[in-house]
Design goal:
Layout lengths: L3 H9 L7 E4 L18 E4 L3 E4 L22 E7 L2 H9 L5 E5 L2 E3 L4 E2 L14 H7 L3 E4 L11 E2 L14 E3 L3 E6 L2 E7 L5 H6 L5 E2 L5 E2 L2
Parallel strand pairs: 1-2, 1-5, 5-8, 6-9, 8-10, 12-13, 12-14
Antiparallel strand pairs: 2-3, 3-4, 6-7, 10-11, 11-12
Length: about 220
């Protein structure tokens, strides 16, 4: 199975030259560290930044430079700062080509739940509602199962929904999945993970091809 950095590294391969990309809180923020050489993208943070760079090295942090998850970040030459109103104006105007989000549950129809667990305190829904409603393409980065071993790839979400029918691809610690036609389509499996394990740990409808490549 992959760790969080492995998931982020695999998702970074989905980022194409010239894209404007929004990175959600959690695993998605790590994608900034793995943008392939030669690929020029502009990373947006919804708290008001275009041109976000990788995480700073220890001792080089600037507490005034943070992402939406309040983590210290770096900026690249040509970065721009603005208020949240302008940031969400960009999102709602569909200026973002790709949104990478974390999730607690995703269904085989592309529904996503990622903002609230009933009974637990949350500060608010954040920008996820706007992002799932407006992004041209959404990829989810997540663990395949919860701490109790229950699948998080489902036929129906049990948690409050963030968006309906909006997720196009999921990358987990077990594999890479396209979502289309009401099913998860297994594209690749993580090193050391068998197809049988993925099938056993996926509660939603899963389509498995005859050959499944391993990704590094």
């Amino acid at each position: 199975m992959l760790d969080k950095n492995g998931i982020a590294k695999r998702i970074a391969r989905e980022v194409k030259d010239g894209m404007y990309v929004n990175l959600g809180i959690g695993i998605p923020t790590l994608v900034a560290n793995y943008i392939p050489q030669g690929v020029e993208v502009v990373l947006q943070s919804e708290n008001g930044l275009l041109g976000m760079g990788p995480f700073p090295f220890e001792g080089e942090e600037d507490p005034d430079l943070i992402n939406a998850g309040k983590q210290t970040i770096t900026t690249l030459p040509g970065s721009a700062f603005f208020d949240s109103a302008m940031s969400f104006g960009m999102i709602r105007a569909r200026k973002v080509d790709l949104t990478i989000l974390g999730a607690m549950e995703v269904t085989d129809h592309g529904d996503i739940a990622n903002w609230k667990v009933p009974g637990k305190m949350v500060k608010g829904m954040g920008g996820a509602m706007d992002l799932v409603a407006s992004a041209k393409n959404i990829i989810v980065a997540m663990q395949h199962c919860d701490k109790a071993g229950n699948s998080k790839l489902l036929s129906q979400c049990t948690l409050p929904l963030t968006g309906v029918g909006c997720v196009k691809k999921v990358v987990t610690d077990l594999g890479v999945f396209d979502i289309r036609g009401g099913a998860f389509h297994l594209l690749e499996r993580a090193p050391g993970v068998s197809v049988e394990e993925i099938v056993a740990k996926t509660a939603g409808k899963l389509i498995v091809p005859d050959v499944v490549d391993v990704f590094a």
